[in-house]
Design brief:
The chain is mainly β. The protein is built from one helix and 29 strands. 4% of the residues lie in helices and 52% in strands.
Length: 416
């Protein structure tokens, strides 16, 4: 009888999924276009959440999506962000602003993005401010002198600070760190290019607020200006409210390292999450979690592969007790699953789990970003794939869909 009921429940969920939205599988799935991706998630002041990412639509245009939901995963509103002259806009980060609205940063590109020889594409930063109801307050693009792209944004006392890269080539390989400051109306206050810091993977960095009104960044960069070493590391740097670098430190992990997320801890120190691998190799990646003091000096460093974790994007949050929680992707039984792990303030692994890998309702999913839920627990956002991986049309194409999984304080998935 139990097995029979479980089958009926699965069939019921599949029917709901067919209409594009369901929370019956211990998560919330958004289906749109040929495929959809959730890149950034933020818990909201009322207990709900907002996420941004992008869709590949039927007309082969990539559009930024922003979706707001309540604490039960019910969609409150959704916005599609487009910008003239750009056929690609990819939402990179969303944050709720102090007034209850939202700020979204996206990477925008022209129609011939992949045709480098044509020279007809220039990257730009797309910044959008929304009111609490999701209505556009203003929408601006910024390209500096030679094109720019962005990976993050924070709110400041007098506007917003955007972090990205200036003048990247079309293969997303190298370019100097670019910081852009705008006021509350979106007007540019200043920008600065840090030529001495060459980013090696342009959209893999992170920026977060610091207690003194500046920002902390973790970026994937070459340790020397020319990039001659050929091995990238994580550069942790603190910047002032005017964009000046107060200090910067480089972490190489096992030989190469890549940045995902960064934060300032309540005690004034910092922590960042990325992945590391031996120089010259392309596999055997491991998560890389580093805790530093207030000056960026290492306090402890941890590498871990939890359940065969495959780091393709991950988020980092701090709990009130100083413990750190990592959310990302793990591999179990040759399938991709959400992964979450908790570490004490001293770096001890407390627990790690792959929620969604149980037999009743297995999920093939990848975790990309993590947020703390109001009232406790976590929200893990990313992508979900068909469990059977059959694709569409028999051509091997496997569509993904934006996915949000609610978790309790112990990392167990919750059923809405």
């Amino acid at each position: 009888m139990i097995a029979s009921n479980a089958r009926y429940w699965v069939v019921f969920c599949l029917l709901l999924c067919a209409v594009g939205l369901t929370g019956c599988d211990a998560g919330w799935v958004y289906r749109g276009g040929l495929e959809s991706h959730a890149k950034s998630i933020a818990a909201t002041q009322d207990g709900g959440f907002v996420w941004t990412g992008w869709n590949l639509d039927e007309d082969i245009i990539i559009r930024t999506r922003i979706l707001r939901a309540d604490g039960n995963g019910k969609k409150l509103w959704e916005r599609v962000i487009e910008e003239q002259s750009f056929t690609i806009t990819m939402g990179r980060e969303v944050r709720q602003t102090d007034d209850g609205g939202y700020i979204v940063v996206a990477a925008a590109s022209g129609p011939l993005r992949t045709l480098k020889a044509e020279g007809e594409s220039q990257d730009a930063i797309l910044l959008v401010r929304l009111n609490p109801n999701g209505e556009t307050v203003w929408q601006r693009t910024y390209s500096g002198t030679s094109g720019a792209t962005a990976f993050g944004v924070i709110e400041t006392s007098d506007g917003f600070l955007v972090a990205g890269c200036m003048g990247p080539d079309l293969t997303y390989t190298t370019g100097p760190l670019y910081l852009l400051k705008v006021n509350t109306n979106g007007d540019k206050s200043w920008d600065v290019v840090h030529q001495s810091l060459t980013l090696s993977e342009l959209l893999s960095g992170s920026i977060n607020k610091t207690q003194d009104g500046g920002g902390v960044l973790a970026v994937t960069a070459f340790p020397d200006e020319s990039g001659a070493s050929k091995s990238s590391g994580v550069t942790l740097l603190k910047v002032s409210g005017t964009g000046d670098i107060a200090w910067q430190k480089t972490f190489m992990g096992l030989g190469r390292a890549h940045a995902f997320d960064v934060l300032q801890k309540r005690d004034g120190g910092f922590a960042f999450l990325g992945y590391t691998l031996s120089a010259g190799t392309a596999d055997e990646k491991a998560y890389y979690l580093v805790r530093t003091d207030e000056n960026g000096n290492s306090v402890w460093e941890k590498t871990f592969s939890g359940y065969g974790a495959y780091p393709l994007g991950a988020g980092l949050v701090e709990n009130p007790d100083g413990s750190l929680v990592v959310g990302g992707t793990g591999l179990a039984a040759y399938e991709s699953h959400m992964y979450i792990a908790k570490f004490s303030s001293s770096g001890q692994l407390l627990w790690e789990k792959t929620p969604g890998s149980d037999a009743l309702w297995p999920l093939a999913a990848a975790g990309i970003d993590l947020s703390v839920r109001s009232g406790g627990g976590y929200l893990l956002a990313g992508e979900r794939f068909p469990v059977d991986f059959t694709g569409t049309g028999g051509d091997g194409y496997v569509p993904s869909h934006a996915y949000v999984m609610p978790l309790d304080a112990n990392g167990n998935r919750q059923w809405w």
